[in-house]
Amino acid sequence: MTKTTPNHHPDIIIIGSGLGGLACGHILASEGYHVLILERESQPGGCMQSYRRKNLDFDTGLHYVGGLDKGPVYQSFRMLGLMQLPWVRMDENCFDRIHINGESYDFAQGYDNFVDTLAKRFPEERKALNDYISMLDGYSKQQLDLLRSSQACDLQTIYATYGSSLSTSAWQWLNSHFHDSTLINVLSGNASRIELSKDTLPLYTLAHINSSYIASSWRLRGPGNLLVNKLLDGIRQHGGEVICNAEVEHLVEEDGHIVAAVCTNGERYEADRFISDIHPKLTIDLISESKVVKKSMRYRLDMMENTYGMLTVSLVIKPHTLPYVNHNEHIYARPNLWEHFEKDHPVSGVMVSYRVPEDHDTYVRQIDLLTPVDWAECKPWETTSLGHRQTNNNQDYNHWKTRKAEQCIDLAATVVPNLKEAIEAQYISTPLTYRDYTHTPCGSAFGLRKDCANPLLTFLSPRTPEPNLLLTGQSLMVHGVEGVTMTALITCAEIIGRQRMWEKLIEA
Asked: Which end of the chain is more exposed for a tag (fewer CB within 10 A), N or C?
């Protein structure tokens, strides 16, 4: 077995270069730790990375970001150097437009503006809308409370910090505060960022995702690789390293500690501490023999469910045919958004995301259509891999994904005039695609499913039974760009201390 020491013995090895891994790498490298990131793919970035077709860049996971005006997300992005990127603020009076039953409803930026806009359509619900915003604001201010806690960041501390929001059903909360069923569905209308489930979705998830976007919403002028490269530049400037095509095969435990990561090519990398940005189950599976990881933990992770995946139709639009639109369209074929996965139905909801023209043109060249897909639909091809779907009847797979794409286009065309005639080319990604590129079980869009009925089971601490192995990423507490960034801060605080992590935010 070959021992590889890139420049010198690293202090910290990070497994995976998604947003969580890169953010942790940037923070820790800036604190003087020698960081080494191991990435299984040929390109870093995870779901933040972009790919190129016909001289155009296509994003895989980044479409818009909330909270870059002020608050925790802004502070975090400023500390990471990401506010230097060309962010474009979306329409302040409509960043998300919800289409239900032939009617459209606008989500405005700013808490007061949001309430005033919807109260014009639902005047009898103004008080309830104000209560909703107060709830969102409260949870937004609460996001960094774990950094202020003097307690260990274990499950009990997480539960004590965020309290009943973890165990409260989002569906029940909305129905107990609002009387108009249409408004409840409207408020749930940007559901491409969350998984609507009456039985499981916690209020905590709904609140933390929605609060930042209502505060302010932004798109990036350029591909997600701009964000990835900015973080990589910061890591390397502080002496950190990233090695691609380095898939960790197993973690070596000695005397109750992880001492090395061994890759599939036989390379062995040793460090004092380890952080995993890959799925928690896959992380624990890397430790095949352990004195500290109990069977109960392995069983618990095996039993936890993943959120749905996403089918994305990336459209190339003919030049000078469709005007750029500075908001997202969320279009639904059925009025009840909380029954999105009824059987034997075609695509019933689609998000339309316009790519900001990089040449400052008034016309759009790229549009993404996104719809959630239950893994059960992908089951016939779950044993296949990229480029080898034909091993399980390629024609059927192509027919399935093409049919889903056509249904997305049909639904989008009800709102976007002349969409079909304007399409020059299209590229389709399914949950199988995401699974094979990001190594995420079931091609999950948001990691492990959080369950308000079992919060202590489904919310995870960065800590593991291995004292020098930490977790980060969207499966722990909150998903999305905001959630992953916040989780990275909490993970790093376990190493540099919470007081120092707080100081870095304030100093940035």
From this structure: N
pLDDT tens per residue across span 51-66: 888 888 888 888 999 9
Q: 325 and 300 in one domain?
A: no
Is the overall model pTM greater than 0.85, yes or no?
Answer: yes
Do 441 and 312 share a domain, yes or no?
yes
Interval 339-350: pLDDT, tens? 765 555 689 899
Q: Are 3 and 262 in contact (CB under 8 A)?
A: no
Strands (DSSP E) contained in 55-175 are 56-59, 65-66, 87-89, 96-100, 103-107
Task: Identify whether residues 265 and 369 lie together within a single domain.
Answer: no
The predicted-structure confidence for 112-155, as pLDDT tens digits, reads as follows 999 999 999 999 999 999 999 999 988 877 777 767 766 666 66
Mean pLDDT for the stretch of residues 298-307? 92
Going by their DSSP bridges, the two strands 328-332 and 366-373 should be labelled as unpaired
State the Cα–Cα distance between residues 210 and 138, nearest whole angstrom. 12
Which pLDDT tens digit goes with each residue over 409-435?
A: 999 999 999 999 999 999 999 999 999
Residues 475 and 428 in one domain: no
Q: Is pLDDT larger for residue 417 or for residue 457?
A: 417
CA-CA-CA-CA torsion for 325, 327, 329, 335, nearest 10 degrees?
A: -140
Name the domain boundary from 405, 423, 445.
Answer: 445
Measured CA to CA, the distance from residue 334 to residue 336 in angstroms comes to 6
Instruction: Collapse the DSSP code of 403 into the 3-class scheme (helix H, G, I; strand E, B; otherwise coil) and give the result.
Output: helix
From residue 297, alpha-carbon distances to 198, 274, 292, 363, 455 in Å are 27, 19, 10, 52, 15
Answer whether 352's CB lies under 8 Å from 310's CB: no
Non-local (6+) Cβ contacts of 208 within 8 A are 139, 140, 143, 478, 482, 483
Q: Which amino acid is at 322?
A: L
Domain that residue 239 falls in: 2-66+223-305+448-507
Does 366 share its domain with 487?
A: no
501, amino acid identity: M
CATH number of the domain to which 7 belongs: 3.50.50.60
Helix axis angle, 203-215 relative to 111-121, nearest 10°? 100
**Secondary structure, 3-state, 202-235:** EHHHHHHHHHHHHHCEEEECCCCHHHHHHHHHHH
Q: Is residue 84 part of a domain?
A: no
Q: How far apart are CA 490 and CA 346, in angstroms?
A: 41
How many domains are there within the chain? 2
